Amino acid sequence: MLREVGAHEPDGVNTTQIARAIGLPRPTVHRLLGSLREVGMVERETDSDRWVVGSELYVLGAVAARRHDVTQYALPIVRELAVATGESAFFSVRRGNDTICLLAEDGAFPLRSHVLHEGARFPLGVVSAGLAILAHLDDREIADYLDAVDLATQFGPAHGRDAVLERVATTRRHGYAVNPGLVVEGSWGMAAVVFDVAEQPRWALTLTGVEHRFSPERHAELGDLLLRAAHTLSTRIARGTGRR
């Protein structure tokens, strides 16, 4: 429920939408939301009756940030990518079987993709960040994951098992992932993985934009920029410092 509320910030979400999204009866969801409100985890807007994130989550997030936050290292690199390419640049983290966008920076080019934004959550294998991370898992983990999800039902036939595995293979060959407008037509993205100190694929850097800005001739240029930026960021995180 908290994830669903957070996914709809800043506009909020009503009880019926949450119940539908998580598959619980509406009365149960209403009761649990009431309990969460009592401890400050969620709040209810008086003018719309929509649920929003509560102040207690901010407090817990601030505590967790001291252990887990790496955005201080990622922010300058995300900005550099946006300036160098003119496209929108992003930094996402893997959480379980999802990726969540943590940072966003608009480039100078006036037309933008609006698929990603801070707080946006997608399953692995969907959008370029999720595809890049999925491609760096071992084959058994990928197979088990695809056995447990049905991406095609939610995101269309282009996200069927065989199609995802084909893009995984392509990503492995190139080192970076390409999403050719599969979530929103005409909205393209490319991503490269950032590794943690155990050399596990934990984060991703992404560039997004409109289709004509991501022509095949430009893939190598953008892919190289992403891979070099991802390597730099992986190194900075491993060293525990943002200095060059």
From TrEMBL:
Ranges where the IclR-ED domain occurs: 56-239
Domain of life: Bacteria
Record PROSITE patterns: HTH_ICLR (PS51077), ICLR_ED (PS51078)
Domain HTH iclR-type positions: 1-55
SMART domains with a match to the protein in the record: HTH_ICLR
Keyword DNA-binding: yes
Keywords in alphabetical order: DNA-binding, Transcription, Transcription regulation
PANTHER family: HELIX-TURN-HELIX TRANSCRIPTIONAL REGULATOR, ICLR FAMILY, TRANSCRIPTIONAL REGULATORY PROTEIN
Name of the protein in its database record: IclR family transcriptional regulator
Biological classification of the source: Bacteria, Bacillati, Actinomycetota, Actinomycetes, Propionibacteriales
